[in-house]
Design brief:
By secondary structure, the protein is an alpha/beta fold. It has 16 helices and twelve strands. Strand 11 and strand 12 form a beta hairpin. The chain is globular, with a radius of gyration of 25 Å. The protein binds one RNA strand through helix 11, helix 13, helix 14 and helix 16.
Length: 394
RNA sequence: GGGUCGGUGCCCGAGCGGCCAAUGGGAUCUGGCUGUAAACCAGACGGCUUUGCCUACGGGGGUUCAAAUCCCUCCCGGCCCA
């Protein structure tokens, strides 16, 4: 199990041991392990961060185990605060059901559609009674919750902690009970929630699940964790060119971090790859292209990856115009400022003027910075380093 | 319920009668440098019919020549105590 990590070695050993036993039992009884992970539908897209656990699920799947993806339609209405030192906006049931559907679909970029159960935890959690909830809650102490770093921090800062937040771990924990899970995967900060599940399972007379946690993926800016709301993500279903471009814009250091987490490369290959880059035997840019190509081919196939790479090299390295330039019809003559708004290059005329004065606009390969310029004929407009627009008469 | 602090631009936050479309940081955009990197440097960052005007500092009302800043009121929230 390369890539899994825990807060302390003791726990890691215990979990390793537990997993080994489970696998042995499973082999004896010829019963596949029930393995699951959950994602709250807090944003419409799954991204490379999710791919870490998804790929691990896929491995289990390929070994014949029973894989379930839980979409946290109910848990999202609480909002998990495990990864942050503040509250989180709660989702309404309407928002979550919409996202739930697309999550299921996006999972299949990695998982085998035929063999995967995609379920929504609202289906069973919403049926719990208050009596049930009290029963669940009685398995934990307030101190156990307050001992968590992020709660502690908030108390020290006199920042609010919602009472409902405590239910998050309970509900996620009950998912494990409901599924009778053998193994639960998650990012490192999920350890508390996963162990809460294991504890509840024991309370319900089930063997506690094995927790497997994985490092958090930093986003494209290389600092904060990848997330949709921070806008630093690479979506699993994004267009090949977008994926390729975003991966190439990542810093060398971030690329190195990503290698072991998001690729399908064997561990030894990753080590070797890193070593080559560090020794200067492999140029970081070439390395990054290989990474980008690999990832795009995972989600869109090799051919799309080839095309994305070619498109990238053409537009960014050779300065050529891409094939898929957006074309807009206008009526000539039209002031350049208005034209920039019409083609969507700027949100307002003021913004368009700013782009012009900043020297960002090229019309037919000529830089134009006068805001009284006028477009009289079909033109190719380049805005900034990578946005192209074609204007034709209507 | 009592006390107390607060609600400012995408986010965080400073301002506490005029010099405020509002300091600073983050995010974002643009330019420079580069390997389309990152880091770094520079600029921009409400809108418009752009030497000016309009809209904005929780909502409404008021004082004033002038209010994000003072007063009244309403709404919303934090913390502490009960």
């Amino acid at each position: 199990m390369h890539g899994s990590e825990f807060g302390d070695d003791q726990l890691k050993r215990a979990m390793g041991e537990r997993l080994r036993k489970r696998l042995e039992q499973a082999a004896e009884k010829q019963r596949p392990l029930r393995v699951y992970t959950g994602y709250d539908p807090s944003a419409p897209d799954l991204h490379l961060g999710h791919s870490i656990t998804l790929r691990k699920l896929r491995q289990f799947q390929d070994l014949g185990h029973d894989v379930t993806v839980v979409v946290g339609t109910m848990t999202a209405t609480i909002g998990d605060t495990s990864d942050r030192a503040s509250g989180r906006p709660r989702k309404t049931p309407t928002e979550t059901t919409a996202a739930a559907q697309s999550y299921g679909e996006q999972c299949f970029t990695i998982l085998d559609r035929e063999k995967t159960h995609v379920v929504a935890n609202g289906d069973w959690l919403s049926g719990l009674t208050l009596t049930d909830a009290l029963e669940l809650a009685s398995n934990f102490t307030v101190q156990q919750f307050l001992a968590r770093d992020n709660y502690r921090l908030r108390i020290d800062r006199s920042e609010p902690i919602g009472l409902h937040e405590f239910f998050y771990a309970l509900l996620q924990g009950f998912d494990a009970v409901h599924l009778e899970a053998d193994v639960q995967l998650g990012a490192t900060e999920q350890l508390f929630n996963i162990l809460a599940g294991a504890k509840l399972q024991e309370a319900f007379g089930q063997p506690p699940c094995v927790a497997l946690t994985f490092p958090i993926l930093v986003g494209t800016n290389g600092v904060e964790r990848m997330s949709k709301s921070r806008g630093n993500y690479v979506g699993l279903t994004e267009a090949p060119n977008e994926q390729f471009g975003k991966i190439m814009s990542v810093s060398d250091e971030t690329m190195i971090q990503w290698l072991g987490l998001v690729t399908n490369w064997p561990h030894d290959d990753v080590v070797a790859f890193r070593y080559q880059v560090e020794r200067g035997e492999l140029h970081p840019m070439v390395a990054k292209k290989q990474l980008a190509h690999h990832l795009v081919s995972l989600y869109h196939g090799v051919r799309a990856a080839d095309e994305a790479q070619a498109a990238f090299e053409n537009t960014h390295q050779r300065g050529l115009v891409p094939d898929d330039v957006v074309q807009t019809s206008i009526t000539f003559p039209l002031g350049l400022v208005d034209a920039l708004v019409a083609i969507g290059a700027a949100n307002s005329k003021s913004a368009a003027r700013r782009l012009l004065s900043g020297g960002a606009v090229m019309v037919n390969d000529v830089k134009v910075d006068a805001d009284d310029a006028v477009i009289n004929s079909p033109s190719l407009i380049k805005v900034g380093p990578r946005r192209f627009f074609r204007i034709v008469g209507s």
